[in-house]
Amino acid sequence: MAVDEISAVQNERRWALAMGGVAAVMLAAIVWAGLGLHMNPPSNIETVDPNTLHVAGEFAENNLGTHVDSAGKITTRIVTTQFAFVPECVVVPQDMQVTFRLASPDVIHGLIVVGTNVNTMVVPGFVSQVHTVFDKPGDLLMPCHEFCGLGHGQMVAHVRVVPIADFRPDGDGRVTCDN
Amino acid sequence: MTINNRLILAHLWTAFAAFGVAILLGLWQMWVRSPLAAPLSTPDNYYLSVTAHGSAMAYVLTTFFIMGFGYFVAESALKQALPAPRLAWAGFVLGIVGTVLVVATVLSGQASVMFTFYPPLSASPLFYIGLVLVVVGSWIWCALMIVAMTRWKKANPGTPVPLAMYATVANAILWLWTTVGVAAELLFVVIPAAFGWTQTVDVGLTRTLFSWTLHAIVYFWLIPAYIAFYTMAPQAAGGRLFSDLMARGSFILFLLCGLPVGLHHLFMDPEHSSGFKTVQMMLTVLVAVPTLLTVFTVTASMEIGGRLRGGKGLLGWIGALPWERPMVLATGLSFFMLWFGGFGGLINMSYGMNAMVHNTSWVSAHFHMIFGGSVVIMYFAIAYHIWPNLTGRLAPSLVLQRAQLWLWAIGMMVMSLPWHWLGLSGQVRRVAQFDYADPSISWWAPWMIMSVVGGGMLVISAGMFIWNLVSFHFERTGAAKPGPVEYARALHPGVPVPAALNGFVLWNAFVLVLMAAAYTYPIAQFFILKPPQAVVHRVDRTP
Amino acid sequence: MALAVWALGFLILPVIDANNTGIDSLTAICRALGIAAPAKQAPSTQTAVPASMTAWDATTLDAVALGDPVAGAALAQDSCVACHDPNGLTTDPATIPSTTGQSARALYKQLSDMKRGERPNDVMKPILDELSQKQLADLAAYYSRLPRRNHDIHAIASARGGAIVLATKGDVSRALPACEACHGANAGGPLEVPMLTGQYPDYIAAQLRAYASGARKNDIYGRMRRIAGKLTDQEIKDVAAYYDAPR
User: Best interface-test mutation with A: which of B42, B267, B271, B521 has the largest number of A CBs within 10 A?
Assistant: First the structure.
């Protein structure tokens, strides 16, 4: 036998240490991403009643879409419902911090803005919030990515990223795909 | 030799029958998603099919296979009769009744909620009760595995429990811990809502309880493959198990690290705090350790076999391995797919990268590669390895067995490699229709057709597998009789095994502490915050 | 080791990240721990103008579930049967819907919305003004238990292929879900969806046109306005005919 017992145990130890090292490197990468790149899980623990979502408050139908407040903060509010995003198209400016706020009045949904790291679940009972900056203009696909019923596959919307010069809020601070 | 062969065969054939049906559904699903026109393609049929495919593969194939294989190991490794075989049959019957309920409700279109349920969608209560019965049947198996090991230890004081059995009991204990989450979800929230006793459900709570189960269940499926890696593959390769202690350590690490990490499935959820997500993300990193230890020990064990057969040089031992033996071939193919699946897993585990792929085809690719590829190919190899013993007949054709394994591995790569880049380009899961006329996604079309081809290869391979097993039963018994299944001996047998590595009391205490730290507040918060509940949406009848 | 992990997860990462997202450290730590931080930012929004005040909270669900069909039958005899016959027949299929065998939740929502004026209807409003919410639930319970109207057995021949695709598969290129994804039996869609099988095709077509033009807008979150606005008039006719077919 080529391997004696002592060297076998030594090999084992070395490998176990090496694997511990690999795990430590991965941990370090995650911490670095959290500290340096601000890549942390989305968690604002904010509750909202799904059954009265449409009756009052920020997720009522006429409050949805992109809005710029008096301080210049840009918030895009979207309701995900069976089987549509409301509104179906939202406008955001390029190279500016945008906050997405999302809620569901019925079942679980989710969304990904294709080609970006905007990706969140939308769970009835909670507000999902994502901060991001879009760096290229264009129409981006935003499909529902969690099974929400038989119309899940047709639940698709768009994010329209426009250069800042073309991002013109109206008197109420609203911007829509129609204007 | 095993005594309760009929019991073992009943379990394994149930598993493979479910597998045979589910894989046909899988091929049809690929066809529907592709640009080729598929028959019967409506959302109703598609989601019915996805639910059936997922439930059959994830619950029926795995649970029945693991139970049957566990009974086999308990008799063949311990060389003693199974305690209370009547109870084992009772567990089997419970599982069959449960499976029939699941099949009936899914096929009648009353349970198209996927195998992950997604409350507040609500299926027929019989669907959930069926799943509970399957789980209760498997709990009987867990108890019998623990009793078998305890009896053996009493009768053989001072002798370490054979590794294959030690690992099987590790899996039984892991499964008992794992099922607590889903059982609580079903019994306290989902089933009362399905019966109409409650009109609303706390969605965050149900997702959290399911996450408790969702990661560890994967290790429940995986451990039989690892048992084969450690105890069957080195034997088949003519080698020795490099280190018995390291093997035990790996199985214990699966038990410890597989459980307190479920929140990583909820990275993108709004109902959990960033702190607990971060803590569980860090624990998730540790899950890679037992797999990496296994890669080392099993490779070293195979190397011994290769060198004993005259292999020379740094890599010469690889060529000297007896690749004509299905167990050796399957282990090689499984390791190959493990690299891809494991790499995908590392991406999913890291929050920042996960944001690019969460709920896209990337995730489907990851679990098809690691479960359908690495694990199920070992289920095939295990079946080929123990079937001679169960039927008392020699294999009719090793050539067909090898061809089947190759076809499976190639088919799995052809089918699921494209899903990786389609997922990165934003192809989401569980969608039956894509607008291939949209210029931004029209390039997906050839890759989707490639996946259909891969799916076709998998179906052919599955058919060959069933044929290979059936032909055992029709083989005439000749003069040559198969010998009993032998498990790999350790390179240095007789190394004393510490008591901690020969039992589970200490490790159960550790799991309790870890689970308390990882899950107490994430579950308790729903009773503190009392988030608004969502109204049940029934898919089984009009309210 | 464990202490370091906890400190990282609950203190260091959240506080440093807080600077990036513009929230204070205390809120960040609360979020990391999973404690709802005191809400400071008032939603900068206009006054809500809901499409319908009907909300499916537990009270409303219970009210509909506890509707009394016997009381509903007596009420219907007094106020409804002149137009809404217990066999599902009506005097004007273009404007008056068949109501028998309809979902109780759908009936309750439409009656409530017409009573409040969210769905304008000059004939129904004065009648509904005399009724309580409890009586609306009774009426819904009564009509939902009656058998659906008999279908026109010749209609299936007139249902065209395009309508069958729209009704059963939808059209992803226009983000149109299948009609059946909500209106099919056991679809698991929005709680208030009406069943369409057995409804008059003229009535279905008229409502789709009203949604498309905005004349009717009591659908929560514009679910139907969005869909109807994308259909051609031929598609509206075809889909309406599809639902007249027996199934």
Answer: B271
Which positions in chain A touch C188 (Cβ < 8 Å)?
107, 149-150
List B11, B33, B215, B393, catalytic entry? B215
| Whether A62 and A137 share a structural domain | yes
Per the CB < 8 Å rule, is C221 touching A79? yes
Residue C216 near residue C45 (C-beta atoms within 8 A): no
Beta carbons of B430 and B363 less than 8 angstroms apart: no
Does residue A81 sit in the same domain as residue A155?
yes
The answer to the question of residue B174 being in a domain is yes
In a domain, B327, yes or no: no
Q: 3-class secondary structure for B20-39? A: HHHHHHHHHHHHHHCCCCCC
Number of folded domains that form chain B = 2
Q: In chain B, which residues have their Cβ closer than 8 Å to the Cβ of C35?
A: 273
Q: Which domains does chain C have, with CATH numbers?
A: 58-145 (1.10.760.10), 155-242 (1.10.760.10)
Q: What are the chain A neighbours of C170 within 8 Å (beta carbons)? A: 151, 153-154
Q: What is the ipTM of this complex?
A: 0.92
Query: What is the domain range of residue B413?
Result: 332-432+455-475
C184/B44 CB distance under 8 A: yes
Euclidean distance between CA atoms C84 and C37, whole angstroms: 53
Chain A, 135-164: which have a CB under 8 Å from a chain B CB?
141, 143-154
| B204: nearest CA partner in chain A | A123
Comparing CB atoms, the residue among C57, C181, C221 nearest residue A151 is C181
Residue A23: which domain range?
1-40
Please tell me whether residues B403 and B516 are part of one structural domain: no
Look up the CATH number of the domain holding residue A76. 2.60.40.420
Instruction: State the Cα angle at A97 between A91 and A102, rounded to 5°.
Output: 60
Provide the chain A residues 44-103 that lie in CB contact (below 8 A) with chain B: 44-51
Which of A40, A78, A178 to probe the C interface (max C CBs under 10 A)?
A40
Task: Report how far residue A131's alpha carbon sits from residue A102's, in angstroms, rounded to the nearest whole number.
Answer: 12
For residue B525, the chain A residues in CB contact (below 8 A) are 45
Q: Residue B291's CB: how many other CB atoms inside 10 A?
A: 22
Residues B358 and B417 in one domain: yes
B273 touches C at CB < 8 Å: yes
Are A89 and A158 contacting, i.e. CB atoms less than 8 angstroms apart? yes
3-state SS, residue A68 = strand
- Phi, psi (rounded to 5 degrees) for A83: -130, 65
A122 and A170, same domain (yes or no): yes
Chain C residues with beta carbon closer than 8 angstroms to that of A67: 44-45
Mutation pick from C12, C179, C186 vs chain B, by most beta carbons of B within 10 Å, is: C186
CB atoms within 10 A of CB C223: 22
Pair A144, A57 in one domain = yes
> Which residue matches tokens 């292929």?
C161
Q: What is the CATH number of the domain that holds B523?
A: 1.20.210.10
- How close does chain C come to A137, measured CA to CA in Å? 22
Q: Write down the pTM of the prediction.
A: 0.94
Among B486, B465, B540, CA closest to B13? B465
pLDDT tens track of chain B, all 543 residues?
688 999 999 999 999 999 999 999 999 999 999 999 999 999 999 999 999 999 999 999 999 999 999 999 999 999 999 999 999 999 999 999 999 999 999 999 999 999 999 999 999 999 999 999 999 999 999 999 999 999 999 999 989 999 999 999 999 999 999 999 999 999 999 999 999 999 999 999 999 999 999 999 999 999 999 999 999 999 999 988 988 888 999 999 999 999 999 999 999 999 998 888 888 888 888 888 888 888 888 898 999 999 999 888 888 999 999 999 999 999 999 999 998 888 888 788 777 778 888 999 999 999 999 999 999 999 999 999 999 999 999 988 999 999 999 999 999 999 999 999 999 998 999 999 899 998 888 999 999 999 999 999 999 999 999 999 999 998 877 767 788 888 998 887 767 888 999 999 999 999 999 999 999 999 999 999 899 999 999 999 876
Q: Is C12 on the interface with A (CB under 8 A)?
A: yes
To the nearest whole Å, the CA of C140 is away from the closest chain A CA by: 21
Dist. CA B28–CA B389, nearest whole Å? 36
